[in-house]
Description:
Blueprint: E1 2-6, H1 10-21, E2 25-30, H2 36-44, E3 49-51, H3 56-59, E4 64-67, H4 76-83, E5 88-89, H5 91-95, E6 102-107, H6 112-125, E7 130-134, H7 140-144, E8 151-155, H8 158-161, E9 171-174, H9 189-197, E10 208-212, H10 216-221, E11 230-235, E12 244-247, E13 250-253, E14 260-263, H11 272-287, H12 292-301, E15 310-315, E16 318-322, H13 329-338, E17 343-347, H14 357-366, E18 367-373, H15 378-384, E19 390-394, H16 397-407, E20 413-416, H17 429-444
Parallel strand pairs: 1-2, 1-4, 2-3, 4-5, 6-8, 6-9, 7-8, 9-10, 10-11, 11-12, 16-20, 17-18, 17-20, 18-19
Antiparallel strand pairs: 12-13, 13-14, 15-16
Helix pairs in contact: 6-11, 6-12, 13-14, 16-17
Catalytic activity: UDP-N-acetyl-alpha-D-muramoyl-L-alanine + D-glutamate + ATP = UDP-N-acetyl-alpha-D-muramoyl-L-alanyl-D-glutamate + ADP + phosphate + H(+)
Family: Belongs to the MurCDEF family.
GO molecular function, one term: tetrahydrofolylpolyglutamate synthase activity
Amino acid sequence: MKLAILGAGESGVGAALLAKAKGLEVFVSDKGEIKEQYKAKLATAAIPFEEGTHTLVNILDADEIIKSPGIPDKAAVIQEATKKEIPVISEIEFAGRYTNAKFICITGTNGKTTTTLLTYHLLKSAGLNVALAGNIGESLAEKVIDNKYDYYVVELSSFQLDNMYQFQAHIAVLLNITPDHLDRYNYSMEKYAASKLRVAQNMTGANFFLFNADDENIAKAFDSASFGGTTVPFSLKGAEGARVYMEGKEVKVTEKFYEGTVDTSASGLIGRHNQYNTMAAVGVAKLLGVADDTIGQALETFENAEHRLQQIAVAKEVTYINDSKATNVEAVWYALDGIKQPIVWIAGGVDKGNDYSTLQELAREKVKVLVCLGKDNEKLKEAFGRIVPIIAETTSIEYAVRLSRSLATPGDVVLLSPACASFDLFNNYEHRGQRFKEAVEKIVLKKK
Length: 448
């Protein structure tokens, strides 16, 4: 069997290594520049590759194509493959063929990385033989080569789900569906929602689908009557039929044979959205038989990923939080809603067609200063000019931190939660978050 792999990043190279290990003929093509670390892996495995172009004669000679999630279906090379009726799949679909391990698959517009990391932490802390993979930045295919795990916790983006067909999760989690990446779905929420719901495809009664029963878009898109798996709805709002819900600081799980009550009071996660993330992760742990006390203890030791409501410093009773991953309005809403103290808010960057109206009430209630960090801040200023008492703007992260420090008073929170992409001033959201952290250390904590 001949395989062509489009894209030589983490997923593409992982798929290539798995294909080689299984004795398949494989060719890797990347229209951009391949990072040295990935070139080295391909060269060591004697896998032929090209960069800077797609040589169609080689690609279209394949029996199957594995494509990077970043390549849209409208790309010319994919269109040509479609004409020749060559199947195009994702790395996750490919990896799923080579293991009998159970998959815990997590998706949603917001919160999937936190929930994936938390679920993995709960299961690993309980002693399960578990690995982490997917959109989190680690290739599932490469991990499947050794096939030494019983469980994989896999974060899935809608782009990965689009090219998954036979893959089956043992437990699937859908956190929420809000508008994002709609340009890839002909600006159709219905198509985007259908993509997210692919996380639960091919399920039977032995498989579990945990979903947010409070999410209107999920309710609209999910046809529970024709669903073959076992549904486990979770809710903060008392949704009818919820099997996972919160009472005070406790998560209650009432799914038959998997009941439990878990105290979450030791968790360091902030905000209502993280209550949903916690319910989902606790629900997964209970479905895999983890004891209540074990889950509660693991919640206390969990450290979230960088750039996601990450507390980086407390100085003179002012807390500095890095939420650079919040690149859309919905994610910022969760941050503003979750923080109870007065906020000095740093926002801005490349606007993605944002509608800030949903943030205005929270801003009126909580935000005392808005520091606009971007090259074009007009939309932010227009949205919050009559709501937030003080608005400033800058293109310097250092100045933004210095100004925030001078305007914050004891008990305040300085929050970087941009609502925008980072590409006007930074390489990506990680770069922006790291620069914020460095500026806080240098200016606030006086570290060299």
